[in-house]
Amino acid sequence: LNRVFIDMDGVLADFDGLKKQLFGPTYEDGDKLIEMPGAFLMLNPIPGAIEAVPQIFGLGYDVWIATRPAPAWPTTYADKAAWVHKHLPKLATKLIMTQDKGLLGEKGDILIDDRPEKANCHLFPGHLVHFAHDGESPIRADRWYGAADWEQAILILKWLAEK
Length: 163
Ligand SMILES: [Mg+2]
Prior knowledge:
alpha/beta; 6-stranded parallel sheet
């Protein structure tokens, strides 16, 4: 059974949406949000994300969440866990918090992440789906694919499942 590891911020949870609401559209520094206890729990789901999880199980994958909390702000760990309990309770026991996503998975597994330049994603041994929203170009690399939204991500997961 191949595994799909799903990033939280920017893939399942709309970090940028809350940041823009609280600090305005041009405020690029996300640190202020990270410093606010409860902020991660308040994030809205990314459109299609909640519905995508049962679909991915339906494609025959094992689904995990792989997220990188902010070590300097321990409340981000608790808030991320609380978000999963609230929005995806079936994944409460499938939540991995790590600074190093290169430690996860094996060949044939899939990581979906919007910031593959961080958290050692380049060391992930399987396929990577770059969730490149807001018109951003996907990062091109061997076994890396781009998806602008959950519909496109599911299309890639279906294709990989049949390979
Ligand atoms: Mg992210």
